[in-house]
Amino acid sequence: MTFAALQAGALAGCKIIDLSRVLGGPYCTQLLADHGADVIKIEPPAGDETRGWGPPFLDDTASYFIGVNRNKRGMTLDLAQPAGQELLRRLLADADVLVENFKPGTLEKWGLGYDALSREFPRLIHCRVSGFGADGPLGGLPGYDACAQAMCGLMSVNGDAQGEATRVGLPVVDMVTGLNAAVAVLLALNERMRSGLGQFLDITLYDCAVSLLHPHAANYFYSGKVPGRTGNAHPNIAPYETLPTRSGPIFLAVGNNRQFAALARVLGAPALPDDPRFATNAERLQHRDALREALAELLAAHDAATLAEQLLRAGVPAAAVQNVEDVLGHPHTRHRGMVLEQDGYRGVGSPIKLSRTPATLRRLPPALGEHNDEVRREVGPVPAEKRPA
């Protein structure tokens, strides 16, 4: 293997015990593992359920699991058994962070909740990812990405104006929850340098979904009007939407009058900003339909990809609408290191770029229980009466 095993990342020396499954927690720990943390992913004997979320599969492991579990060591442990609980405590003895997404109350039932662990390991940072938290009107209930999108208003503002509320086409709540969990871990690690103490990090899908409501929440706070769906159009800016061209749709994201004037010049209609209907953003919003018609006529002769690059070079945010294959094969995606390919592994690279300590690919996603023996050797022998089966 040619993994960069000797290249220490920004989190080298940080040991993380990952009890999480599915997406939010594993995405968090992969972000941290990419930057050098030693992440030990502990799965129940049957494994993380996403190992079976396919096709497609690679060597009987679903691509879903592969996508968020690289750079981790993997072991299996039955935490419902005393022997498994004892071995977890051995692992936590020198760990910095515990990440888990058990339903609130589950670890507490086993004597492994924050109160118990913090007494035994006062420096341990305990990050829990859950649906709603442990208390409150919805406390302790299970949470899922699509349900959070529906419950927290995201679906209500996503979709065509005359269509139905629509789920965002990727698990945005799970992934933002994982990202917020990673930020929380880093904040707690920094604070521990002053206090010497760990703390409990309470990260919920519900909170993270609500946090995504900008600008709709801000608009509601200051107008009292309930936001609705506007398709691809922005509620506060025009033109900021997809429009047709000869070869397909182009997205224009024109945020100010200077950009609108540059758009008009590139399209060969430099007088367009002189039209009083389009002179300011407020006027363009008020006359959005007329603006859309005028732009569609000007765009009809253009190729979306060629025009988008012209507009970008003229300072106008624009993009042809690409599919997943298009973007993963784009030269700039490769230039930015956003596609990793090694020894049969293909994955999306880390978006977090550090100049001296970059993210590295050190380990492929682990097979179920791949590092059981290695990790158990590190923690030492477990007393015979407590030895895991």
UniProtKB/TrEMBL annotation:
<feature type="compositionally biased region" description="Basic and acidic residues">
    <location>
        <begin position="370"/>
        <end position="389"/>
    </location>
</feature>
<dbReference type="InterPro" id="IPR023606">
    <property type="entry name" value="CoA-Trfase_III_dom_1_sf"/>
</dbReference>
<dbReference type="InterPro" id="IPR050483">
    <property type="entry name" value="CoA-transferase_III_domain"/>
</dbReference>
<protein>
    <submittedName>
        <fullName>CoA transferase</fullName>
        <ecNumber>2.8.3.-</ecNumber>
    </submittedName>
</protein>
<dbReference type="InterPro" id="IPR003673">
    <property type="entry name" value="CoA-Trfase_fam_III"/>
</dbReference>
<dbReference type="Pfam" id="PF02515">
    <property type="entry name" value="CoA_transf_3"/>
</dbReference>
<keyword id="KW-0808">Transferase</keyword>
<dbReference type="InterPro" id="IPR044855">
    <property type="entry name" value="CoA-Trfase_III_dom3_sf"/>
</dbReference>
<dbReference type="GO" id="GO:0016740">
    <property type="term" value="F:transferase activity"/>
</dbReference>
<feature type="region of interest" description="Disordered">
    <location>
        <begin position="364"/>
        <end position="389"/>
    </location>
</feature>
